[in-house]
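TICKET #2291
ISSUE: user wants both folds in one file
ATTACHMENT 1:
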Amino acid sequence: MTNTFKQSLLMLAAGGLMVVGSASAQTANTSGAGPGQVDPGHPRVNQINRRETNQQKRIANGVKNGQLTPAETRRLQRGEKRLQNNEKRLMAKDNGHLTKKDQRQLNREANHMSDRIAKDKHDAK
């Protein structure tokens, strides 16, 4: 893989992280917490956000190391965006909070994404 191609992929992943970060920072609700925002008063939100951040780092690392193809990266980024949109929707339902049921649902989705990241990073493509 050429250096320019690797740099392009890394830029794509970094751009995705910035877009996701800026979009989530614009989330408004009464608690002040939202996807991508840490709020010590909301451990369920913080736990989900830590997972999302970790998975974004894993995707960026896979791009950097050449373990992820551009198509895999796009699919994983779409999945992460879907997870974040679900978090926003669930939080909007409960005045900026996540219920235990919401957290379980988001964790199931995050588990699925984690498995997908691992599979794509280790499929020798």
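ATTACHMENT 2:
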Amino acid sequence: MLPAAYQVPAAVVLLAGGFLACFLGYRMFKVVLAVFGFIIGALAASSVFGATDTTPMVIAAIVGGIAGGALLLAAYFVGVALVGAGIGALLVNVVWTQIEGDPHPAVVILFSIAGAVVATWLQRYVIILGTAFGGAWTLLVGGLAMMGDSGPLKAAAAGDVWVAYPLNPAPGMRWLPWAWFGIGVLGTLVQMRWTGGDRGRIGKAAAKPNKKKPPTKE
């Protein structure tokens, strides 16, 4: 995890990135990919060092964040498929845990592939859903950390499951899944109604109406 002096700035990044993704995810998809790539890369790189190795940890977080952001930006269109794969994996976990515990890895892989395929055809809606709910969870984790709860940042750095999997909250935080669902739905509605842009695939220009020239007089 990051040293205590850097936990508030990290919480600010999580809070800002979560808000951006939740309510402006489709319109600013490239920026969202870069922000989340930076967060993932920074957490992965900084976890290599111990809590006392402040300078190497901070350097590793910065380098890892830049690399992660650049990687997701380079995989711009692949990122759309990854969002769909993530939604597919989440759905199968939600359904399966209500029946008989954790799903078989093969089932998760199958649903992830199906989600990636669907995402390529329904890019706008998949991006809106993925960014709204992903941003909502990041917003909650950053908000908790900003209010003085160091648990989310410690858990994120340690790879605790409740940070990566909202439906398995930490003890005493059973309200989190409901807050996540509510904020995710709100973000989806905001994007669908106001900030989600025109219908169609990402990067597809809206068709311009044909203007007929008035007949010339001979």
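RESOLUTION: both attachments delivered.
EXTRA DETAIL ON ATTACHMENT 2: Residues 123-146 form the longest helix (24 residues).
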